[in-house]
Every structure is written in structure tokens, then in C-alpha cells.
Amino acid sequence: MENSVKLDCRGVWKLYGPNPTAFLNKHGGNPDQDTMNKAQIIGAVRDANVQIHEGEIFVIMGLSGSGKSTLVRCLSRLVEPTAGHVEFEGRDLLSMPEAELIDVRRKKMGMVFQHFALLPHLTVLQNAAFPLDVQGVDRKTREARAHEMVELVGLKGRENYFPRQLSGGQQQRVGIARSLVAEPDLWFLDEPFSALDPLIRREMQDEFMRLQSMLRKTIIFITHDFDEAIRLADRIAVMKDGAIVQTATPEELILNPATDYVEEFTRHIPRAKVLRLATVMSPGAPEGNYAGDLQGGLSVADTVDQIEAESRPFRVINKNGEAIGTIDARTVIDVLIGRSGK
Amino acid sequence: MKFLARHILKGSRPFWLCLFGVTWVLSTYSFPLYKALDARWIIKFPKAWELQLDGWISAVMKWLVEDASFGLFSFRDLTRFISSLIEAPYQVVRSGLIDGFSTGQGQQAVEIAPSLSWIAIITILAALAFYAKDWVLAALVGGCFVYLAIFGQWESAMVTLASVIIAVPLGVVGGLLLGILAYLSPLAERMMRPVLDLMQTVPVFAYLVPILFLFGFGPVSALVATVIYAMPPMVRVSTVALQGVPTEIEEAGRMMGCSRRQMMWKVLVPSAMPTLMVGVNQVIMLSLNMVIIASMIGAGGLGYDVLTALRRLDIGGGIEAGLAIVALAIALDRLSQAFSTRTQDALPEPGLSYVKRHPWLVSVVLIMLGTGLAGLYLPAIQSYPESATLTTSAFWSDAMEWININFFDTFEAIKTFFLTYLLLPVKRFFSGVPWAWGIIAIGLAAWRVGGWKLGAMAALMALAIAASGLWAKAMITIYLCGVSVFLASVIGIPLGIWAGQNSRANSVIGAFIDTLQTLPSFVYLIPVVMLFRVGDFSAMIAVVLYALAPAVRYAAHGIREIEPEMIEAGKVSGCTKNQLLWRIKLPLATPSLLLGLNQTIMLALSMLVITALVGTRDLGQEVYIALTKANTGQGIIAGLAVAFIAITADRIVSAMARASRERLGLK
Ligand SMILES: Nc1ncnc2c1ncn2[C@@H]1O[C@H](COP(=O)(O)OP(=O)(O)O)[C@@H](O)[C@H]1O
Ligand SMILES: [Mg+2]
């Protein structure tokens, strides 16, 4: 049930340094690290390919300096890529004239920033209403709409505060309200919770999931925190030194890391929380008698007590109640201690 | 100072000793040499080689004013147009503050509306202060203006204030627009930078000469000069402020789909507002400074009072007007600073009535109208009754007389001491340097510090000064500036070090320095002339006072910025307090001290030109003479000569600072 591709990015490069375009052409559009070092060129993004599908949460993960921000800015054309193609809803974003680009950004895109990027001279309400103000929406309409958004992110009652009177978490809520006020289809979040304390960060992640379950946006979410990526993502792209090392679902990343680098990240992740029964089960309905039915979408961690308590295996079923596989205590234990390849 | 010298000379002592030795010998024996060889060119640049640039510039200016035309309109029309643009709002503000509105001319004038009453003006300013900060500031600002009323300076102060009120918006808006241009276009920024550099180093008097020539004597000329003088820092601050807006905010604006105009006016400029307000404060203070100086070309007001008092040696009147300037300066400075640090509270609840939401605005308007109406029947409400003014003039005259009678010998002794042991020897040294060697020596020194490019530039500038026939006067300027900077450093750096190490000292010294810096340069002349009369010594004192602030500030800053770990490391290795200061703190603070030195030199030069009023014989005098004769060429050339000295000094000291930062491994 593949959804349509919302944003399609192929062969995108972003090089910083003297004369990057000429440099890229000279080396056949694919220079290696050594040549770049010699020419004092920084490869912030190197040959990135991503397809983002309608309605998914696509997380770009990587350590600081790995090029995540630059990539997401290439996708929104906040920075001009040195080479490559970006298509948004089938339209070529990179050759779009300025007026059209402005229109696309006004109507279709929203972005949340790491350090909130609120306008210091505007109140919470005015900040949230600002995108509509820019579009020339009349004051009454835009403030009514901003009120809704401010309420949605849980800041009702603070409409007339200024940003500096709010805590970091509250400021980012305003940032979120602002990015959603124009009802964008594509929502960029560049490390939205990285500047917050760990406890607040969790709270904001839950809040984010709550919003997404209501709104169903197409999301590109940047983080350097693998836990966060796992928690939120439908799919994850792992970046290193400007290149995307692997793009996969959280489960695939854990089960089949493409490189040692990716594996290093997955090592400390509690696998039982990520892996679903449907992934770890053995195919085919149980032979003979079984203890009961379990949904394939449940995680191993959620079902482990139940499965362990029984000597008989369980039958795994899909949403329609059809049998799709078998799971028993041994498989679960394998997963928990990370014994086999599965 | 000695320490600084040692630090800078490190490693190249023989070079500097040689350079100094040769210069000293040539300086001492240049006159006998000229006599012996009968070669006058040694001490005086040959007349035949002089560039006659001043005559040429004067001719061009004359042509501009008399004949130049752009087809549809002449240059004269253009200046008239600018005049009328400025004149009209100036008259409105002046009428509103002091003159009242009337129709008709001269005898037939009929008043149609009075000016704002003095009570209303004080209320407005105090209310602004309260709005910007708190009751304390409101009391301070209100107090300053009540002082002006009680001590009979109201009218002059309002004339000055009217000029400031017109000049500041022009300076701010013009500066902001140019700053935006520089921010948007690197090309424009590259083209503007040297012009701004020059404008900030050309002495104020030099601005006045061509403007006087173009616009004639009167408030318009004064306003034009003020705006031109006060604008450059605003250009710089605007560019820096816009560049300082976090990238994320700019990106947020772009992602929300701002057009270019929305981006600038709805995102960037408001986000840069706190920094921009610092620039506004500077424009206000520079405008006040210049409005006072521009009384020489017809600004009137407090500056004119000081000027006439100085000319008549009216001690009491001078001090009174000077104190009024101080009161006005402090009020304007604190008020505009409060606006730049003002933090908004949450907005009032919408839905309240207009009066409830803006209680202050409403009451101020009521007071304005109320006192205006009441003033029609009770004149004392309209303008402060003359019979109730106090004058301190006699008091100050007596006080000064008393001081001069009782301490005459002491002051005389101090003056003689400085003249004999410091001023005259240094003067003799600099005046004696033959111009040819002077050019070479400056070139060599600059080369040694900053490479051959700097050396060539310094030598060329020195040559240009000599070729304009200004060598002797330039040497007097350098000598006076050098001595003053030396004294300012000797006094300022220890004060700064003390302030940097001791927070109590810091608050006292900081407040003192802040006040010194708010005062318009003119004010410094008054007490100095009263105590020491005219001459180089008086000029030197005024310059030292004016140029003290940066020496103190940067020294304190340099000491404070040292990493605590460095000092701890020193303590752990068993340094005594003295060793800690001399071996660790001072070497680490050197780059900062040098920056302070640079600023001190710049301020000293700008003040030095103004001290021409107390009878120095340097380039400042040359400009001043040009001003009184309205000789544009002479004024511009002499002004440029001062600018050249300033630029050379700036580049040399900056190069030293850079070198010392590199040596210390700081960035
Ligand atoms: N404007 C720029 N000029 C030069 N180098 C840049 C610029 N922006 C980013 N870089 C470099 O590109 C690399 C990737 O940066 P960034 O995308 O910000 O990483 P991340 O967001 O993953 O921390 C870094 O090495 C950074 O130094
Ligand atoms: Mg980043």
C-alpha cells in the first residue's frame, strides 16, 4: 500500500568552498573525500537520494555536522543545492521562479527550527498568525486561526506573552503552532526538541505524536538522537559525512544495519521495543494447538510476559484476523538477548 | 605605557632605537644644518612643489554654487530645495517647542496657537521615561528639564532640542537605509566602507566649511552638518545589526513565504531592533554634540550661549550654559538608552476601552491641552516665569575668581611644570623633524609594524600633507595628540586595570566614564579655559578628559576577559600580586589595551580640532580659520590632513593589535 511520492530528491550535492560547481563538474559529478579535502571543499551533502511518501514520518538521523540541516534546507530550497534534482508534488522545485516558490512555501510547507526562530517583537498570538499575515489574510481571520493553533499546542491563556517570557518548551510549541497555521502538506522539523531538557523533550515527542495522529502530515524530521528517531519514525535515513548511509524502517535498521556505523547506533537500543511480532514470528500458522491470538503489529516488549507464561506458542494474526505466523517463548528470548540474526 | 612599549618593541629593539636615534639627531640639528648649508628646503617643503589643491577645490565649489546646472535645474536650486525640505519641519518643531505658531511676518505676525507649555513638555518627556523604564528615570529626566526651566536655560535648550528632534530621524532613517543597502549588496558595502572611514576621521569643523559655503549661515546648514556627522555610525550599526539576526530567523521568514520587502521590514529589521536602538542612541548623542558645535554656523541654542560666553570670557554664563548642556545630554542619553533596553510586558487585554488600554497617552494629551488652555489666562503655565528663574552665573563667576585668586600660583606652577618638562620638549622634537626624514621615518615605522603596503600608504599620506604645505601644523597636531594620548593612557589604563579587578571601583569609575562620554565635546573647553586660559596646556587637558574613556574601558575589559584559568595557573605557580599583574594579566590584556589606544587616538584627534577655539596652532586652527573665512579648499585640505593622520595611526595601531593577538594565540 505504497502512498504517492510527495518529495523526490535525486543525486543532491551541496558543496561549500571555492567554486563548488566547477569543482563538481571537473570531477565528473562524483568527487571522493580526498580530492575534496585537497581542494578545501566541504561536502555538506553528497549524492543524497530520498523519496518521501505522503503521510509518512521520515526521520533524517546523524551526528552533529553530518549534513542533516543542509540536506533538509536543500529539500526546501533554503540553500541552493550544487547539483541534483528535487521534485515536490511532481514539480521541479529547483527551477521554480521566485514568486512560485514563495507561493509553494506559503501554502504547502511549514518548518520548525532548532532554536525556535520566533520573532522577538511579536506576541505568541502574533507569531502564530505571522505566516497568514505575510499572505495578506485579514486580521480577524488570521487571529482566529492562530487562536485555534495556540490552543492546539496547549498554550491557551498565553496568547499575549512575548517569546522571552516563555520557557524553551513553550517557545517551541509556538514554533509548532506557527508552522502549522497555514495548513501545510509538508512539514519540516529541524531538530525541534534538541535544545530542550530530556524530560521536556519526551513530553514534546508525545505531543508531536498526538498532533500527527490528528493531522496526518507528511513529515521530514531531523534529529541527532537515535532513540528519538526510533520512537517517531516510519522510515529513517542515517547520514554520515554528508552521505546517506542507509534508508530503512526502524526494524530493518536494527535487524540489518548496512554498515558498522549504523550498527553502532542500534547497539544500545532495546530491540524488544522496536521489533514487532510480525517481524520476528516464524511464518505459517501454528501446527496443533496454540495459546491464543496476538496482533502482528504489537511489539515484542508489550507481549513478552504473556508469551513467556505459556508453554504453547501463540498464533499471530493481521488486522483482518487472518493467521500470518507463529510466535513462541524461545523466539522472544532470542530477540531479547539479541542471539540470532533475527 | 612603558610596559606597552616593551611588549610592542619585543624582538625588534635595535630597529626602533636606530629609528628614534636618527630622528632625534636630525630633529635637533636640522636648524643648524639648514643654516650651515643655507638649504631652506630642509626644514620647509619647497613652495614651488606645493600642490595648490585648496585653490582648485575652492574654484570647483564656487563653480558648483554659481554656475553648475543639471539641465532642468541648477546646483543652487538643488541646495535651495534641500534647505526648504529641512527648514519647514524645523520651523514646525521650533514653533511647537518654543516660538508658537503664527501667520504673517515680523511685525504683522499673528499668533494662532501657542507652543507647548513648559509643563506639557516636561510631562511628555517624563512620561516617555516612565514608559521606557521606571519612575526613577522619569524623575531624572523630568528633573533635568525642570533644572533647565528654573535656571533660565529653557529657551536655548528648546532651540537645541528642536535641532536634535529634526536631525535624529533624518540621521536614523538615512543611516538605516544605507545600512540596509550595504547589507543587501556587498558591492555597495565595499564602496561605502572607505567613505565611512573617512567621514568618521575627518574632523567636525571640516564638515562645516563646505556646508556653510553651500547652504549659508543658519539653522539649515547646522542641521545638514549634524545629519552628515551623526549618520555614519548608524550605517555601520544597521549593517552589523542585520547581519547579527540569527540565520534561523531569516530562514523562518523565507519558509513562511515572505517577499523581499516583508523579509526586510517584518522580519529582519524588527528582529535587529535592540541593536538598532544602540545606533539610535549614538545618533542622538552625536547629533547633540554636533548641534552644539554647529552653533558656529548658525544653529543657535545652548551651543551659541557657550560660544559667546567663551568669546567674551564670561565665566558664569559659560558654566551655566555648559551645565545646561550636561543636563540635556544626560537626559537624552539615559532616555534613549532606556528605550534600547526596554522589554515589553505582556500586552494589555484587548477589549478594554481605549482610555484603559493607554492611560498614559490619554493623560499626557490631557495635560498638553489643559496647560495649553490654562496658559492662555495664566502666562506662568505657558512659559516658566522669568521672575522665578534663578541664575547661578554670578555664583560661578565669584567661585572662579576665588579659585583663581587663591590658587593662581598652584595652577600656574602645574602649568609651567607640564609645559617645561613635557609639552615644550616634545614640541621641539616634533617640530624639528625635517619633513623629508619625517616621511621616511613614518613609512619605515609603518612598514616594520604592518608590512610594505602599510608603509607605502603611511609615507604617501605624510607626503600629501607635506605637499599641501601643512607639515609644520601637522607636526603640532601630532605632538599635542601624542602628549594627550600619553597622559590619557597613563591615567586611564591604571584606572581601567583597577576597575577590571575590583567591582566596587568598577561601578564608580564606570559611572564617571559614562557621564564623561555623554558630554558634547564643547563642554570640556569651559572649565579648562576658566582655570588655565588659552594655549596648548588648556587644549591638552580638554583632550585628555575627552579621550580618557576608551583607555579606561578597554583596559578594564581586557583584564576582565582573561580566562580565570590563566590567573589560577599563575597563582598556583606562586606569583605575587604584582607578578600576577605584570607577568600574566597585562601581557594577556595587551590586544585590548591597544584597541583602547586606537580609540583614544581617534577621540583625541577629533577633540584636538575643537580646541582650536582655545588657541592652538595646529591643523585644527587651519580648519577653524578656513571656517571663519568660508574658504572651502583650505578647510577640506586641512580636514583631510587630520583624517590622514587618524587613518595612519589607526592602521598602525590595529596592525600592532593584530600582531600581539597572534603572538598570544588569540583569535
Ligand atoms: N554556510 C556554510 N559554509 C560552509 N560550511 C558549511 C555551511 N553550512 C554548513 N557547513 C558545513 O557543512 C557540514 C554540515 O553541516 P550541517 O548541515 O549544519 O550539519 P548538521 O545539521 O547535521 O549538524 C558541516 O561540516 C558544516 O561545517
Ligand atoms: Mg543542524
Automatic annotation (TrEMBL), chain A:
Gene Ontology MF term list: ATP binding
UniProt EC number: 7.6.2.9
Pfam families: ABC_tran
Location(s) in or outside the cell: Cell inner membrane
Main location: membrane
Domain ABC transporter: 30-266
Keyword hit for Nucleotide-binding: yes
Keyword Metal-binding set for record: no
Membrane topology: Peripheral membrane protein
Assigned keywords, A-Z: ATP-binding, Cell inner membrane, Cell membrane, Membrane, Nucleotide-binding, Transport
Catalytic activity as recorded in UniProt: a quaternary ammonium(out) + ATP + H2O = a quaternary ammonium(in) + ADP + phosphate + H(+)
Subunit structure, as described in the record: The complex is probably composed of two ATP-binding proteins, two transmembrane proteins and a solute-binding protein.
Family the UniProt entry places it in: Belongs to the ABC transporter superfamily.
Protein name: Quaternary amine transport ATP-binding protein
Organism whose genome encodes this protein: Pseudohalocynthiibacter aestuariivivens
From TrEMBL, chain B:
Localisation per UniProt entry: Cell membrane
CDD domains: TM_PBP2
Membrane-spanning intervals of the chain: 14-34, 112-131, 137-154, 161-184, 204-230, 360-381, 402-423, 429-447, 454-471, 477-499, 511-531, 593-615, 635-653
Coiled coil spans: none
Membrane topology according to the record: Multi-pass membrane protein
InterPro entries, per database record: MetI-like, MetI-like_sf
Pfam families: BPD_transp_1
Domain annotation ABC transmembrane type-1: ranges: 153-336, 474-653
Coarse class of the protein's main subcellular location: membrane
Protein name: ABC transporter permease
